[in-house]
Design goal:
Elements: E1 7-13, H1 17-28, E2 35-41, H2 48-54, E3 61-64, H3 70-79, E4 85-88, E5 94-95, H4 99-109, E6 114-123, E7 126-131, E8 151-154, H5 157-161, H6 172-182, E9 187-198, H7 202-205, H8 207-220, H9 225-247, H10 261-264, E10 265-267
Parallel strand pairs: 1-2, 1-4, 2-3, 6-9
Antiparallel strand pairs: 4-8, 5-9, 6-7, 6-8, 7-10
């Protein structure tokens, strides 16, 4: 690329040959002169690397080697990124048609550290709910409040905040964005759906452990012990209930969330 890209998009992947290509194509169909696209593979053995090689001309950089987990893979991508902003888009996620254009319009109109939009979650390839971008003032910081697939953050933040904590298996993004918010970084809503993503990732497959790790992160950052534990007890109970539903074949049942979370989740029939 002749000019420095405005946005570095980083996709991490491991043994997901069936979903990676749709993610790649959704990125390369955006405004190309603004994008650098990086794919970090964790040493896949299922043919994922073949998919990467087949699409290598569409990529700015790719790497395939064993890593120490999601945090490590994210960090490798950051260290190879040259853009002003960074977005993490997992394998299987699909950018909406004008995601980059809408983000660039927001950047042009406002100066912020983090730009975030809405994300639409797909359940078994069907639309399930919209994870809405809500004003920063409405965040309940105990809860993992941002969907990283719909967040563009300034690359310079990684120099100030640091890289992702490699000791965390599931809540590394929550931990990192929380550090940004607690340092009063400026957040701006992109008034648009930016990505489609599917349930079934690492955190979904290990939902109890993921929630426990989020709880520990909140406590580490000094949130009220009793309120935090009470909040996560309820979340873990609902997650266990959902696991039971799944086992008996009822499937995913959205449990509407009270108070602030009604603002953030828009269930779509």
């Amino acid at each position: 690329m002749k000019d420095k890209p405005i946005i570095s998009i980083i996709t991490i992947v491991y043994n997901d040959k069936n979903n990676l290509e749709k993610t790649i194509l959704s990125v390369v169909n955006q405004i190309q002169n603004s994008i650098e696209y990086i794919v970090i593979d964790g040493g896949s053995s299922d043919g994922t690397v073949d998919i990467i090689k087949q699409n290598s001309k569409l990529l700015s950089f790719w790497l395939s080697e064993k890593d120490k987990g999601i945090s490590d893979a994210f960090n490798k991508g950051v260290l190879h990124a040259n853009g002003e902003f960074i977005l993490f888009l997992n394998a299987g996620d699909v950018m909406t048609e004008n995601a980059i254009l809408n983000m660039l319009l927001s950047v042009k109109s406002k100066t912020s550290d983090i730009y975030y939009g809405s994300a639409i979650c797909r359940i078994k390839d069907k639309t399930g709910f919209r994870f809405k971008a809500i004003p920063a003032k409405d965040f309940n910081l105990i809860h993992p409040f941002l969907c990283h697939q719909a967040i563009f953050c300034k690359a310079a933040l990684f120099d100030e905040i640091g890289l992702f904590d490699t000791h965390l298996r599931f809540a590394m993004d929550y931990d990192w964005y929380l550090k940004c918010v607690l340092k009063n970084k400026i957040l701006t809503i992109v008034d648009s759906d930016l990505v489609y993503y599917s349930l079934g990732g690492t955190s979904d497959q290990n939902i109890i452990k993921a929630l426990e790790e989020c709880r520990d992160v909140a406590l580490k950052h000094g949130f009220d012990y009793n309120k935090t534990n009470s909040f996560y007890r309820k979340k873990i109970f609902k997650a266990k209930l959902q696991i039971i539903f799944n086992k008996i074949g009822i499937g995913w049942i959205p449990i509407k969330i009270k108070s602030i979370y009604k603002k953030q989740y828009n269930f779509i029939k």
